[in-house]
Amino acid sequence: MLIERIEGKWIDAFVDVFSLCQVARGDAVAILSETQSRSVLVQLSELALHRLGARAFHVVLPTPPQRHPIPLRSTGTSLAIDGLQPVVAALAASTMVVDCTVEGMLHAPELKTILQGGARLMMISNEHPELLERTKPTPQLRERVLKGLAVLEAARQMRVTSDAGTDLMVDLQGLQRALRQGSSINRVRSATGRLAWYCASPRAAR
User: Fold this and answer.
1) By percentage, how much of the chain surpasses pLDDT 70?
2) Which residue stretches of the chain are H helix?
3) Stretch 140-161: mean pLDDT, rounded?
4) CA-CA distances (angstroms) from residue 206 to 17, 20, 94, 129?
5) What is the DSSP letter of 25?
6) Which residues does 2 contact at the CB level (< 8 Å), separation at least 6?
7) Using the 8-state DSSP alphabet, how is residue 78 labeled?
8) Angle at 130 between CA 127 and CA 134, to 5 degrees
9) Is 122 within 8 Å of 204 (Cβ atoms)?
10) 20 to 30 A from 173, CA-CA: which of 58, 90, 107, 117?
11) What pLDDT is attached to residue 204?
12) Is 27 helix (H, G, I), strand (E, B) or coil?
């Protein structure tokens, strides 16, 4: 089992990702976490933001009680904020939010208000830093993904075949609008109200 401790190479990886998000010196960046968050991700975020000269601050919430008898994993629907308006207001007023909650804010009910307030949000997947290091987005990977999106947008069908007998036909009609929306939302730039995540999508690079 890998040890969860601060490694210089992991700080470097987080600096690279936040640089692609165009974090600038003096930016007010909220680090959102909960009591069951991976502490190493919170610490790496703080150290990387400090290296970039951002003014980072922490918003830490109690992890809410379990509401279901089965484990929830990778839903992107964090319940940590639970509609607490002072927290939502503080996040929305930030330049950027680094989301280190366990499940992430991707589908959280408060996300829309936070983005509408002008903040950008980078969701850090609740994974070991070693995995995040290996899946770090790059500008080159982003360009490859955008080319793939362009191919999908121009296509009406997608067919997947293999020597093993796979012959899958996918109807892409009506998908173009969703692709356009997704590809714009998931590229974090200096513009406000943008969302991205690390690791999950190379589109998060900018």
Assistant:
1) 85
2) 8-20, 39-51, 85-92, 111-116, 129-134, 139-154, 175-185
3) 86
4) 9, 5, 18, 21
5) T
6) 128, 130
7) -
8) 100
9) yes
10) 107
11) 38
12) coil
DSSP structural state of residue 147: H
Q: How confident is the model at residue 67 (pLDDT cuts 50, 70, 90)?
A: confident
pLDDT at 57 over 80: yes
Q: Tell me, what's the pLDDT at 1?
A: 65
Size of the chain, expressed as the number of residues it contains: 206
Cβ-contact 152, 158 below 8 angstroms: yes
Name the residue among 40, 17, 18 with its Cα closest to residue 29: 18
* First-residue to last-residue Cα distance in the chain: 33
Selection from 140, 153, 162 nearest residue 183 by Cα: 153
User: Rounded to two decimals, what is the model's pTM?
Assistant: 0.80
pLDDT tens-place string over residues 115-131:
999 999 999 999 999 99
Q: Which pLDDT score, from 0 to 100, does residue 25 have? A: 97
Structure-block tokens of residue 116: 């509408």
Helices 39-51 and 8-20: angle between axes, nearest 10 degrees? 60
From CA 57, how far away is CA 54, in angstroms rounded?
9
Apex 58 CA angle, 52 and 59, nearest 5: 140
With beta carbons less than 8 A apart as the criterion, state whether 78 and 100 touch: no
